[in-house]
Write a structure and sequence with these properties.
By secondary structure, this protein is of the alpha+beta class. The chain has helices at residues 4-20, 34-41, 67-77, 117-131, 144-152, 158-166, 171-181, 191-196, 213-228, 234-245, 250-263, 268-283, 330-336, 351-361; strands at 24-25, 31-33, 51-54, 58-62, 82-91, 103-112, 138-143, 247-249, 292-294, 308-313, 324-328, 344-349. The chain has a domain at 186-230. The protein is globular, with a radius of gyration of 22 Å. The mean pLDDT is 88. Keywords: Glycosyltransferase, Transferase.
Length: 362
Protein backbone atom coordinates (compact mmCIF):
# COMPACT_ATOMS: atom_id res chain seq x y z
CA UNK A 1 0.00 0.00 0.00
CA UNK A 2 1.44 3.43 -0.91
CA UNK A 3 2.48 5.80 1.88
CA UNK A 4 -0.11 8.40 2.92
CA UNK A 5 2.22 11.23 1.90
CA UNK A 6 2.66 9.73 -1.57
CA UNK A 7 -1.11 9.43 -1.98
CA UNK A 8 -1.56 13.10 -1.07
CA UNK A 9 1.20 14.09 -3.48
CA UNK A 10 -0.57 12.20 -6.27
CA UNK A 11 -3.86 13.88 -5.32
CA UNK A 12 -2.13 17.27 -5.51
CA UNK A 13 -0.76 16.40 -8.95
CA UNK A 14 -4.22 15.48 -10.21
CA UNK A 15 -5.75 18.63 -8.72
CA UNK A 16 -3.15 20.75 -10.49
CA UNK A 17 -3.84 18.86 -13.72
CA UNK A 18 -7.56 19.67 -13.62
CA UNK A 19 -7.00 23.25 -12.48
CA UNK A 20 -4.69 23.63 -15.46
CA UNK A 21 -7.62 22.59 -17.69
CA UNK A 22 -9.82 25.37 -16.34
CA UNK A 23 -11.47 23.79 -13.29
CA UNK A 24 -12.11 25.79 -10.12
CA UNK A 25 -11.04 24.04 -6.93
CA UNK A 26 -13.83 23.61 -4.36
CA UNK A 27 -14.23 21.96 -0.97
CA UNK A 28 -17.27 20.44 0.71
CA UNK A 29 -17.95 19.58 4.39
CA UNK A 30 -16.99 16.10 5.51
CA UNK A 31 -20.21 15.87 7.54
CA UNK A 32 -23.26 15.82 5.28
CA UNK A 33 -26.94 16.11 6.32
CA UNK A 34 -28.39 12.60 6.31
CA UNK A 35 -31.83 13.82 5.22
CA UNK A 36 -30.65 14.75 1.72
CA UNK A 37 -28.94 11.41 1.12
CA UNK A 38 -31.87 9.46 2.55
CA UNK A 39 -34.27 11.35 0.28
CA UNK A 40 -32.11 10.47 -2.73
CA UNK A 41 -31.28 6.85 -2.02
CA UNK A 42 -33.69 5.70 0.66
CA UNK A 43 -32.75 3.72 3.72
CA UNK A 44 -30.32 1.58 1.68
CA UNK A 45 -27.71 4.32 2.02
CA UNK A 46 -27.41 3.49 5.73
CA UNK A 47 -25.78 0.22 4.80
CA UNK A 48 -23.06 2.04 2.86
CA UNK A 49 -22.44 5.17 4.94
CA UNK A 50 -21.28 6.05 8.43
CA UNK A 51 -24.16 7.64 10.32
CA UNK A 52 -23.82 9.92 13.32
CA UNK A 53 -25.90 12.59 15.04
CA UNK A 54 -25.47 16.10 16.40
CA UNK A 55 -27.79 17.97 18.78
CA UNK A 56 -27.90 20.93 16.37
CA UNK A 57 -27.30 19.44 12.91
CA UNK A 58 -29.35 16.33 13.62
CA UNK A 59 -28.65 13.05 11.83
CA UNK A 60 -25.61 13.27 9.56
CA UNK A 61 -23.34 11.03 7.48
CA UNK A 62 -19.65 11.09 6.81
CA UNK A 63 -19.32 12.13 3.16
CA UNK A 64 -19.86 8.97 1.02
CA UNK A 65 -18.89 10.86 -2.14
CA UNK A 66 -18.44 14.39 -3.48
CA UNK A 67 -21.01 14.55 -6.25
CA UNK A 68 -24.08 15.32 -4.13
CA UNK A 69 -22.51 18.20 -2.14
CA UNK A 70 -20.86 19.63 -5.27
CA UNK A 71 -24.20 19.58 -7.11
CA UNK A 72 -25.89 21.28 -4.12
CA UNK A 73 -23.19 23.94 -4.04
CA UNK A 74 -23.48 24.61 -7.77
CA UNK A 75 -27.29 24.71 -7.82
CA UNK A 76 -27.29 27.23 -4.95
CA UNK A 77 -24.74 29.69 -6.28
CA UNK A 78 -22.83 28.38 -9.29
CA UNK A 79 -22.34 30.28 -12.54
CA UNK A 80 -22.86 28.67 -15.93
CA UNK A 81 -21.00 26.96 -17.41
CA UNK A 82 -18.84 25.65 -14.57
CA UNK A 83 -15.97 23.21 -14.11
CA UNK A 84 -14.90 22.11 -10.65
CA UNK A 85 -12.18 19.97 -9.16
CA UNK A 86 -11.74 18.75 -5.58
CA UNK A 87 -9.82 16.31 -3.41
CA UNK A 88 -10.58 14.78 -0.04
CA UNK A 89 -11.60 11.73 1.93
CA UNK A 90 -14.79 9.80 1.42
CA UNK A 91 -16.13 7.17 3.79
CA UNK A 92 -17.95 3.99 2.83
CA UNK A 93 -18.58 0.78 4.70
CA UNK A 94 -16.95 -2.17 2.98
CA UNK A 95 -17.94 -5.79 2.74
CA UNK A 96 -15.73 -7.80 5.05
CA UNK A 97 -14.47 -10.01 2.23
CA UNK A 98 -13.04 -7.07 0.24
CA UNK A 99 -10.50 -5.96 2.88
CA UNK A 100 -10.67 -2.44 1.43
CA UNK A 101 -10.17 0.71 3.43
CA UNK A 102 -13.41 2.37 4.59
CA UNK A 103 -11.76 5.79 4.17
CA UNK A 104 -9.90 6.88 1.07
CA UNK A 105 -9.03 9.91 -1.05
CA UNK A 106 -10.90 10.94 -4.18
CA UNK A 107 -9.95 13.55 -6.73
CA UNK A 108 -12.73 14.66 -9.05
CA UNK A 109 -13.62 16.76 -12.06
CA UNK A 110 -17.21 17.93 -12.67
CA UNK A 111 -18.70 19.82 -15.62
CA UNK A 112 -22.00 21.75 -15.55
CA UNK A 113 -22.63 22.89 -19.12
CA UNK A 114 -25.87 22.88 -21.11
CA UNK A 115 -24.35 23.91 -24.45
CA UNK A 116 -23.31 20.46 -25.73
CA UNK A 117 -23.77 17.45 -23.41
CA UNK A 118 -22.07 15.05 -25.82
CA UNK A 119 -18.99 17.27 -25.95
CA UNK A 120 -18.99 17.53 -22.14
CA UNK A 121 -19.14 13.72 -21.84
CA UNK A 122 -16.17 13.45 -24.17
CA UNK A 123 -14.30 16.19 -22.32
CA UNK A 124 -14.56 14.49 -18.94
CA UNK A 125 -13.69 11.05 -20.30
CA UNK A 126 -10.72 12.27 -22.32
CA UNK A 127 -9.27 14.33 -19.45
CA UNK A 128 -9.46 11.36 -17.08
CA UNK A 129 -7.82 9.22 -19.75
CA UNK A 130 -5.08 11.84 -20.20
CA UNK A 131 -4.48 12.18 -16.45
CA UNK A 132 -4.08 8.40 -16.13
CA UNK A 133 -2.49 7.83 -19.54
CA UNK A 134 0.90 6.48 -18.35
CA UNK A 135 -0.84 3.66 -16.44
CA UNK A 136 -2.14 1.93 -19.57
CA UNK A 137 -5.58 1.26 -18.08
CA UNK A 138 -8.50 -0.39 -19.88
CA UNK A 139 -11.58 1.79 -20.25
CA UNK A 140 -15.13 0.46 -20.20
CA UNK A 141 -18.23 2.49 -21.02
CA UNK A 142 -21.99 2.12 -20.81
CA UNK A 143 -25.16 4.18 -21.06
CA UNK A 144 -27.72 4.02 -18.26
CA UNK A 145 -29.92 6.36 -20.30
CA UNK A 146 -30.55 3.60 -22.84
CA UNK A 147 -31.73 1.24 -20.10
CA UNK A 148 -33.93 3.88 -18.45
CA UNK A 149 -35.57 4.68 -21.80
CA UNK A 150 -36.19 1.00 -22.54
CA UNK A 151 -37.70 0.29 -19.12
CA UNK A 152 -39.88 3.41 -19.25
CA UNK A 153 -41.35 2.21 -22.56
CA UNK A 154 -42.35 -1.29 -21.38
CA UNK A 155 -46.00 -2.24 -21.82
CA UNK A 156 -46.90 -2.56 -18.15
CA UNK A 157 -48.13 -0.55 -15.18
CA UNK A 158 -46.39 2.56 -13.92
CA UNK A 159 -45.84 0.83 -10.56
CA UNK A 160 -43.98 -2.02 -12.23
CA UNK A 161 -41.84 0.33 -14.29
CA UNK A 162 -41.03 2.36 -11.17
CA UNK A 163 -40.00 -0.81 -9.33
CA UNK A 164 -37.71 -1.89 -12.19
CA UNK A 165 -36.12 1.56 -12.38
CA UNK A 166 -35.64 1.64 -8.61
CA UNK A 167 -33.80 -1.69 -8.69
CA UNK A 168 -31.86 -1.12 -11.90
CA UNK A 169 -28.72 -0.75 -9.76
CA UNK A 170 -29.33 -4.12 -8.08
CA UNK A 171 -29.02 -6.57 -11.03
CA UNK A 172 -30.14 -9.68 -9.14
CA UNK A 173 -33.25 -8.03 -7.71
CA UNK A 174 -33.97 -6.42 -11.10
CA UNK A 175 -33.84 -9.84 -12.80
CA UNK A 176 -36.17 -11.34 -10.20
CA UNK A 177 -38.72 -8.57 -10.72
CA UNK A 178 -38.51 -8.73 -14.52
CA UNK A 179 -39.05 -12.51 -14.46
CA UNK A 180 -42.10 -12.09 -12.25
CA UNK A 181 -43.58 -9.17 -14.18
CA UNK A 182 -43.16 -11.08 -17.45
CA UNK A 183 -44.82 -14.22 -16.10
CA UNK A 184 -41.62 -16.26 -16.18
CA UNK A 185 -41.62 -16.67 -12.40
CA UNK A 186 -44.48 -16.95 -9.89
CA UNK A 187 -45.43 -14.32 -7.35
CA UNK A 188 -43.91 -14.65 -3.86
CA UNK A 189 -45.40 -17.49 -1.75
CA UNK A 190 -48.52 -16.54 0.13
CA UNK A 191 -49.38 -13.48 -1.94
CA UNK A 192 -52.22 -15.11 -3.88
CA UNK A 193 -53.69 -16.49 -0.65
CA UNK A 194 -53.52 -13.06 0.98
CA UNK A 195 -55.24 -11.31 -1.91
CA UNK A 196 -57.91 -14.02 -2.17
CA UNK A 197 -59.23 -13.17 1.28
CA UNK A 198 -62.43 -11.08 1.33
CA UNK A 199 -60.66 -8.67 3.70
CA UNK A 200 -56.83 -9.04 3.71
CA UNK A 201 -56.70 -6.58 6.63
CA UNK A 202 -58.85 -8.75 8.85
CA UNK A 203 -56.91 -10.67 11.49
CA UNK A 204 -57.19 -11.42 15.21
CA UNK A 205 -53.72 -10.08 16.07
CA UNK A 206 -53.20 -6.33 16.59
CA UNK A 207 -51.32 -4.43 13.89
CA UNK A 208 -47.76 -3.98 15.06
CA UNK A 209 -44.96 -2.30 13.09
CA UNK A 210 -43.83 0.90 11.44
CA UNK A 211 -46.60 1.07 8.83
CA UNK A 212 -49.97 2.61 9.57
CA UNK A 213 -53.24 0.85 8.76
CA UNK A 214 -53.72 3.23 5.80
CA UNK A 215 -50.25 2.40 4.45
CA UNK A 216 -50.94 -1.32 4.71
CA UNK A 217 -54.23 -0.89 2.87
CA UNK A 218 -52.46 1.07 0.13
CA UNK A 219 -49.86 -1.67 -0.17
CA UNK A 220 -52.54 -4.34 -0.51
CA UNK A 221 -54.24 -2.30 -3.24
CA UNK A 222 -50.90 -2.06 -5.08
CA UNK A 223 -50.49 -5.84 -4.83
CA UNK A 224 -53.98 -6.33 -6.25
CA UNK A 225 -53.19 -4.04 -9.17
CA UNK A 226 -49.98 -5.98 -9.80
CA UNK A 227 -51.78 -9.35 -9.67
CA UNK A 228 -54.32 -8.13 -12.23
CA UNK A 229 -51.74 -6.68 -14.64
CA UNK A 230 -50.95 -8.72 -17.77
CA UNK A 231 -47.35 -9.91 -18.18
CA UNK A 232 -44.81 -7.77 -19.99
CA UNK A 233 -44.74 -9.00 -23.62
CA UNK A 234 -42.00 -11.53 -24.42
CA UNK A 235 -40.64 -9.49 -27.33
CA UNK A 236 -40.08 -6.48 -25.04
CA UNK A 237 -38.32 -8.63 -22.46
CA UNK A 238 -36.06 -10.04 -25.19
CA UNK A 239 -35.22 -6.57 -26.51
CA UNK A 240 -34.37 -5.36 -23.01
CA UNK A 241 -32.20 -8.44 -22.44
CA UNK A 242 -30.43 -7.79 -25.76
CA UNK A 243 -29.74 -4.21 -24.72
CA UNK A 244 -28.40 -5.22 -21.31
CA UNK A 245 -26.25 -7.97 -22.83
CA UNK A 246 -24.55 -5.84 -25.48
CA UNK A 247 -20.73 -6.06 -25.43
CA UNK A 248 -18.83 -4.49 -28.32
CA UNK A 249 -16.54 -1.61 -29.15
CA UNK A 250 -18.16 1.83 -29.34
CA UNK A 251 -17.61 2.16 -33.10
CA UNK A 252 -19.44 -1.13 -33.77
CA UNK A 253 -22.31 -0.76 -31.35
CA UNK A 254 -24.16 2.13 -33.02
CA UNK A 255 -25.60 0.00 -35.83
CA UNK A 256 -26.86 -2.60 -33.36
CA UNK A 257 -28.50 0.10 -31.25
CA UNK A 258 -30.20 1.57 -34.30
CA UNK A 259 -31.59 -1.89 -35.12
CA UNK A 260 -32.98 -2.20 -31.59
CA UNK A 261 -34.54 1.26 -31.89
CA UNK A 262 -36.60 0.06 -34.88
CA UNK A 263 -38.42 -2.39 -32.59
CA UNK A 264 -38.22 -0.13 -29.51
CA UNK A 265 -38.70 3.45 -30.80
CA UNK A 266 -38.61 4.91 -27.28
CA UNK A 267 -34.84 4.43 -27.11
CA UNK A 268 -34.23 6.35 -30.36
CA UNK A 269 -33.39 9.68 -28.62
CA UNK A 270 -30.93 7.89 -26.31
CA UNK A 271 -29.38 6.17 -29.34
CA UNK A 272 -28.96 9.59 -31.01
CA UNK A 273 -27.19 10.84 -27.87
CA UNK A 274 -24.94 7.77 -27.94
CA UNK A 275 -23.96 8.45 -31.58
CA UNK A 276 -23.30 12.15 -30.85
CA UNK A 277 -21.11 11.16 -27.90
CA UNK A 278 -19.15 8.66 -29.98
CA UNK A 279 -18.46 11.37 -32.56
CA UNK A 280 -17.40 13.80 -29.80
CA UNK A 281 -15.06 11.19 -28.29
CA UNK A 282 -13.47 10.57 -31.67
CA UNK A 283 -13.09 14.31 -32.22
CA UNK A 284 -11.07 14.50 -28.98
CA UNK A 285 -8.71 11.80 -30.17
CA UNK A 286 -10.27 8.82 -28.37
CA UNK A 287 -9.89 5.62 -30.41
CA UNK A 288 -13.48 4.38 -30.27
CA UNK A 289 -12.52 1.26 -32.24
CA UNK A 290 -10.72 0.11 -29.08
CA UNK A 291 -13.15 1.55 -26.51
CA UNK A 292 -15.39 -1.10 -24.94
CA UNK A 293 -19.13 -0.67 -24.49
CA UNK A 294 -21.10 -2.88 -22.07
CA UNK A 295 -24.87 -2.64 -21.97
CA UNK A 296 -25.01 -3.44 -18.25
CA UNK A 297 -22.10 -1.23 -17.21
CA UNK A 298 -22.74 1.13 -14.30
CA UNK A 299 -25.52 -0.90 -12.67
CA UNK A 300 -23.78 -1.35 -9.32
CA UNK A 301 -22.85 2.29 -8.69
CA UNK A 302 -24.66 4.95 -6.68
CA UNK A 303 -28.03 5.57 -8.25
CA UNK A 304 -27.57 9.11 -9.56
CA UNK A 305 -26.17 8.19 -12.99
CA UNK A 306 -28.71 8.49 -15.82
CA UNK A 307 -26.63 8.59 -19.00
CA UNK A 308 -23.04 7.98 -20.07
CA UNK A 309 -21.02 5.95 -17.53
CA UNK A 310 -17.41 4.77 -17.63
CA UNK A 311 -14.56 3.32 -15.63
CA UNK A 312 -10.80 2.74 -15.95
CA UNK A 313 -9.32 -0.59 -14.84
CA UNK A 314 -5.85 -2.08 -14.41
CA UNK A 315 -5.97 -5.39 -16.29
CA UNK A 316 -2.76 -6.43 -14.54
CA UNK A 317 -4.48 -5.97 -11.16
CA UNK A 318 -7.92 -7.63 -11.34
CA UNK A 319 -8.01 -7.52 -7.53
CA UNK A 320 -8.30 -3.72 -7.57
CA UNK A 321 -11.53 -1.76 -7.97
CA UNK A 322 -11.65 0.75 -10.84
CA UNK A 323 -8.99 3.45 -10.60
CA UNK A 324 -11.49 6.01 -11.93
CA UNK A 325 -15.24 6.08 -12.54
CA UNK A 326 -17.64 8.68 -13.84
CA UNK A 327 -20.81 9.48 -15.67
CA UNK A 328 -23.70 11.81 -16.40
CA UNK A 329 -26.21 12.75 -13.69
CA UNK A 330 -28.65 15.28 -15.15
CA UNK A 331 -31.55 14.01 -13.01
CA UNK A 332 -29.62 14.70 -9.81
CA UNK A 333 -29.44 18.40 -10.67
CA UNK A 334 -33.23 18.41 -11.09
CA UNK A 335 -33.74 16.81 -7.69
CA UNK A 336 -31.32 19.10 -5.86
CA UNK A 337 -32.00 22.21 -7.94
CA UNK A 338 -35.44 22.97 -6.47
CA UNK A 339 -36.93 23.85 -9.81
CA UNK A 340 -33.79 24.47 -11.83
CA UNK A 341 -31.57 21.98 -13.64
CA UNK A 342 -28.48 21.77 -15.80
CA UNK A 343 -26.80 18.90 -17.69
CA UNK A 344 -23.89 17.63 -15.60
CA UNK A 345 -21.17 15.00 -15.91
CA UNK A 346 -18.15 14.19 -13.78
CA UNK A 347 -15.64 11.60 -12.64
CA UNK A 348 -13.45 10.66 -9.70
CA UNK A 349 -9.98 9.15 -9.46
CA UNK A 350 -8.62 7.19 -6.50
CA UNK A 351 -4.96 8.25 -6.30
CA UNK A 352 -3.91 5.38 -4.02
CA UNK A 353 -5.11 2.88 -6.65
CA UNK A 354 -3.17 4.71 -9.36
CA UNK A 355 -0.04 4.41 -7.22
CA UNK A 356 -0.69 0.73 -6.59
CA UNK A 357 -0.74 0.15 -10.33
CA UNK A 358 2.58 1.97 -10.64
CA UNK A 359 4.06 -0.07 -7.80
CA UNK A 360 2.92 -3.28 -9.46
CA UNK A 361 4.92 -2.39 -12.55
CA UNK A 362 8.10 -1.53 -10.64
Amino acid sequence: MPEAAAIRDEAARLLAFFEGRGAVRVETPVLQPAETLLDLYGEDIRGRAYVTSDPVVGEAMLRPDFTVPVVQMHMERGAEPARYTYAGEVFRKQEEATHRAPEYLQVGYEVFDRADPAAADAEVFSLIAEALGPLGLRAATGDVGLLIAAISALTTTERRKAALLRHLWRPRRFRTLLDRFSGRAPAPPGRAELLARPDPMACDAPLVGLRSEAEIAERIEALREDAAAPPIPDNEVRLLADLIGLRETVDNIAEHLQDLAVDMPAIAPAVSRFIARAEALAARGVDISRLDFEGSYGRTSLEYYDGFVFGFYAESRPDLPPVATGGRYDALTRVLGQGSEIPAVGAVIRPELALQVVEGRA
